[in-house]
Design a protein that fits this description.
Layout: H1 2-26, H2 28-60, E1 72-76, E2 84-88, H3 97-120
Antiparallel strand pairs: 1-2
Helix pairs in contact: 2-3
Keywords: Membrane, Transmembrane, Transmembrane helix
Transmembrane segments: 29-50, 99-120
């Protein structure tokens, strides 16, 4: 059974390699577009995840990061410095804004990336007839 899997994997990789080479020969513009699409998608992913990672990292590295226990969430107060209260977790939930804001921000990042690509002039003609 293990030998059959190796043969199938080799066959699959061979077919994928042949298709890729054919695609490169016949449709270089498609490969170019797919490359830029992948680049923009990676940029959007990094821009979307980075603030969340920074926020979680800041919370977990805080000296006040200890939990309250019993399904409660610890909240720091500004009034007396270092004052901490524990609030029941049921008071916090998802809202419609939780879906809307990341979607709008992701669209803004995609629009900015497209604008950068246009400003850089990646689709300008190679020859300048001036």
């Amino acid at each position: 059974m293990n030998q059959a899997r190796k043969i199938m994997a080799f066959f699959f990789l061979t077919v994928i390699t042949e298709l890729w080479e054919t695609l490169l020969e016949r449709r270089p513009l498609l490969v170019y577009a797919a490359t830029w699409t992948t680049f923009v998608a990676a940029t959007v992913a990094a821009a979307s995840v980075a603030p969340e990672v920074a926020f979680v990292w800041a919370l977990t590295s805080s000296p006040y990061a200890g939990g309250c226990g019993g399904g409660a969430i610890r909240i720091l107060l500004d009034a007396p410095p270092g004052e901490i209260i524990c609030v029941p977790a049921e008071l916090f939930g998802h809202t419609g804004v939780d879906f809307l804001v990341p979607t709008v921000l992701a669209a803004a990042v995609v629009a900015a990336a497209a604008y950068v690509v246009r400003v850089v002039g990646l689709w300008e003609a190679e020859d300048n007839s001036s």
